[in-house]
Amino acid sequence: MGNLIKVLTRDIDNNAGNFFLDFENAQPSEAERELWDQLCVVLKDARGILDDLRSYNGAGEVIREAIQHPSDEGLQEKSWGAVVPLVGKLKKFYEFSMRLETALHDLLRSLTSTRYTPTQHLEREQALAKQFAEILDFTLRFDELKMTNPAIQNDFSYYRRTLNRMRIKNVPAEGENEVNNELANRMSLFYAEATPMLKTLSDATLKFVSENKNLPLENTTDCLSTMASVCRVMLETPEYRSRFASEETASFCLRVMVGVIILYDYVNPAGAFVKSSKIDMKGCIKVLKDQPPNSVEGLLNALRYTTKHLNDETTSKQIKTMLQ
């Protein structure tokens, strides 16, 4: 963003103060440094995961040839040779989702502790707040790429079918040691999700809340609603938005806003769409609708199809209409 951006947060907590949240240049304090360093490694690997996913072209052509000519051993070997390394990539993506769950737990443990209010946490621990935002940004990017690449599930399904046939015939299978049956089952469930990384983070947030019963639920939900409000205000206020160094910063804020809304909707028993929600859903949806349609359709679909409470009776007709 270049400059620090001032965000009004009078409606968020009792501090009624203003604070600066810099998604671009925030640097860790000494208190944040240890966790920040750990998360830097995870986020660096996340960029590599996205690069691998973008370049994932699948083995569709050789698979089709092998299926059409089942008695051609050469084609069967060729298709198997093409699929095995791809499944190695899919295993890598799945294993990274587990690292992301651990990283999220570590972040939530810091950002929801009782020593500060949610706004104070974001104000004092901006480097960690930025890393939380980067995890959400990665999650939405990964899922958008996965949803538009049917080769992923097709390749994995073919791999499992072929592996089962090879076992029946007692044929040794290269790659089986890498993805055993138990792991293959878990990977299959992961990739069956429309938005697997978002599902991972949603489940991880629920797990964090259930495992930390001594921590008030509001500490977690207020952390999420505060992040949503900060992103919304930066996006809808021309004075703040004009300071973005690039339009990509706005896209980043949009993804983060949608990500925390979805997590909030899973963790808050009443969801994000009820009148008592601490997230201004109408304002957030309006911000999304004010963007060029092609740039936010995936984010609107994430709200439509991956939230838990949108279709509840407690959701106003106006919000449902806005998301139609």
TrEMBL record:
It comes from the Eukaryota. Keywords: Lipoprotein, Membrane. One of its GO terms (biological process) is regulation of actin filament polymerization. One of its GO terms (molecular function) is small GTPase binding. InterPro entries: CYRI (IPR039789), CYRIA/CYRIB_Rac1-bd (IPR009828). It is a lipid-anchor. It comes from Albula goreensis. It is found in: Membrane. Transmembrane segments: none annotated. GO terms for cellular component: membrane. Belongs to the CYRI family. This is CYRIA/CYRIB Rac1 binding domain-containing protein.
